[in-house]
Fold Cytochrome P450 78A5.
Amino acid sequence: MVNQIKGLMEKERVVEVKRVFHFGSLNNVMMSVFGRSYEFGENKNGGERSELEGLVSEGKRCRDLVGKVNVYVGKIIDEHRMKRAENSGVVSDESSGDFVDVLLDLENENKLTDFDITIVMV
C-alpha cells in the first residue's frame, strides 16, 4: 500500500488514502478467504474488482436494513412463542399452518436459532 500511495502521489499528486486502505483491506480479505488478489487500479480483472467493491459498498448500505428486519421478524417470532406459551405449547387454530409455527416446531429437533428462522423467513 505504501508503494501504491507513493506511485499515486508521483503520478496524480493527490492520494485518496481512504480508498487505498479500503482496497488493501478488501484485497487482504479476498486473499485470505478465497486465495485471490487484485491489483490497485485498472487491470485485467478490474471489472471483477469493481463489481466486488460495489457489492461491499452495497452491503454496508444495507447493514441498517438487516438490523431493522431482524428486529421486526424477531417480534413476530416472540409473539408466536408467547401464544404457544399461553396455550401450553399447542399451536392455536388461528395460527395453524403459519410458516413461523412450522419453523418453531423444527426449532428444537434441528437446533434452529432465531437467526436461522429469520433467514428462512426473509
In short: The chain has a mean pLDDT of 79. Residues 62-122 form one domain. The longest helix spans residues 46-86.
